[in-house]
Amino acid sequence: MSGPDLSNERAARDRGARFVVGVDEVGRGPWAGPVVAGAVCLRGEVPPGLNDSKKLTAKRRVALAPLIEDIAHHAIGEASVEEIDALGIRKATHLAMERAVAALGVSPDHLLIDGNDRPSWASVSCQTIVGGDGVSASIAAASVLAKTWRDRGMVILAQQYPGYGWDRNMGYGTAEHREGLKCHGVTPHHRRSFAPIRNILFPPTAQNSP
Predict the structure, then answer these.
(1) Would you say the pTM of this structure is higher than 0.90?
(2) 202 in a domain, yes or no?
(3) Is 24 annotated as a binding residue?
(4) What was the pLDDT predicted at 205?
(5) Nearest alpha carbon to residue 34 among 201, 138, 188
C-alpha cells in the first residue's frame, strides 16, 4: 500500500486554492503534557519515506523534520494542560490547531485536517480526512513535526520530573507512569480532568462518603 501523496493537495489547487495546509495533532490521550498540533503547507516534493508519524521510528521522525521544514511553510501550536482541563481535550485540540494555522505566516485557502471533526474556527474551505496522516502528504508532514516537537518537550519535562518515564512513554498511561504516580504523586503537568489523575486527587471513596 502506498504512503501519503499530494493528490488531495493537487485537487484543491485545481479548484483554485493557492495555499493548501495539512493539519494534525498529537497528544490527545496522554495523562500529562500539552496537546500539540502541526500545520504544514508543502512547497516542494514529498520527502522520501514520509508517512503517518505513528508508523515511523523516533529516529526517522527526527531525520525527516528538518527536511519537511526546508520545503514547507510550517508552524506548531499548543494547548496547555491548564487549557485542556478548562476546555476539555476536544476544544483544546481545536485551539492548538488554530494556533498552528495562525502561526504559519501564510493565509490558507484550503485546510486538510486529520479525522472527521471540523473545528469551528475554520473559516476557509476545509476537508476532514479520516486516516489523513496516511493519505495526505501535508497532514503526514504536520503529524511528524507535531510529534517531534511534543516528544522533545516531554523529554525535557522528564528531566525536571524524573520517575514517570515521560522520556519513554511521552505522558501516556503506561505501567511505569502509573508506578511513578504511586511513588511521587501528581505533578503540575498532569491533566487533572482525566479520570486516572482525578481519581488520585479525589478518590471515589472520598467522593461518596457522607
Answers:
(1) yes
(2) no
(3) yes
(4) 74
(5) 188
